[in-house]
Design a protein that fits this description.
Largest sheet: 4 strands, mixed
CATH class: Alpha Beta
Order of helices and strands: EHEHEE
Domain UPF0033: 11-35
Number of helices: 2
Number of strands: 4
CATH architecture: 2-Layer Sandwich
Protein name: Sulfurtransferase TusA family protein
Shape: globular
Strand order of the largest sheet: 1-2-4-3
Distance between the termini: 21 Å
InterPro entries: TusA-like, TusA-like_sf
CATH topology: Translation Initiation Factor IF3
Radius of gyration: 12 Å
Family: Belongs to the sulfur carrier protein TusA family.
Pfam family, one: TusA
Length: 84
């Protein structure tokens, strides 16, 4: 990842599969103030395209960045979503 974001909240959906990362991200982002950033941690590789597509098709939401890291031998996909 290239930028640092100050997340208002972190949503941990590791171990959840499609469509739950998107469903829970939508629920969490609806509870945030305008301009707040939500950090989403997922293990579902499809979360990259799923959250990207959801953000592109949803007014008032911006996908700021996505990346992946290894944690204890598991790939974790990190997404930063801003409520606009």
């Amino acid at each position: 990842m290239t930028q640092e974001f100050t997340a208002a909240e972190t949503l941990d959906v590791r171990g959840e599969n499609c469509p739950m990362p998107v469903v829970k991200t939508k629920q969490a982002i609806d509870d945030l103030e305008s301009g707040d950033v939500l950090e989403v941690l997922a293990t579902d590789p499809g979360s990259e395209s799923d959250l990207g597509g959801w953000a592109d098709s949803t007014d008032g939401v911006a996908l700021l960045e996505q990346g992946q890291t290894e944690m204890d031998g598991v790939t974790v996909y990190t997404h930063y979503v801003r409520n606009e």
